[in-house]
Amino acid sequence: TKMQNYLLSSSVGxxxxxxxxxxxxxxxxxxxSGASRYIHRQLLQKRAVEIGIGTFxxxxxxxxxxxxxxxxxxxxxxxxxxxxxAFYNLECDETKIPDExxxxxxxxxxxxxxxxxxxxxxxLCAHETLLxxxxxxxxxxxxxxxFK
Length: 148
What we know:
The chain is an alpha+beta fold. It has five helices and four strands, in the order ααβββαβαα. Strands 3-2-1-4 form a four-stranded mixed sheet. Helix 2 (25-44) crosses helix 4. The two termini are 28 Å apart.
């Protein structure tokens, strides 16, 4: 599966990240901003988006609204792939995506059109960034991966 690409038993070397080396930080951010907008549009349509290392989805949570009253609301969440959790021995809250939620992949074509990059660049940038992310997890580094 695609997930296996991100289970690293050794550190990621620069030779595995040729696209990231060619792109500037602002170009990489542009690609991920496009990916973020794509994910946001899918969540608005009640779809989850699987990105290789996990899935963005709307999950039901209980919110206390007033004295003794609880309301179920949906909030966006990122659910780390169970293989990644097991492989790196990560502790994550057990969050379940509702069964009726359709799951889609990143649409690199659409993100490329939105960001004015070639489709291959978008796909490689995403893949190499996720490799970097997995490498940081493997090496127990603190990671911050922000999405708007």
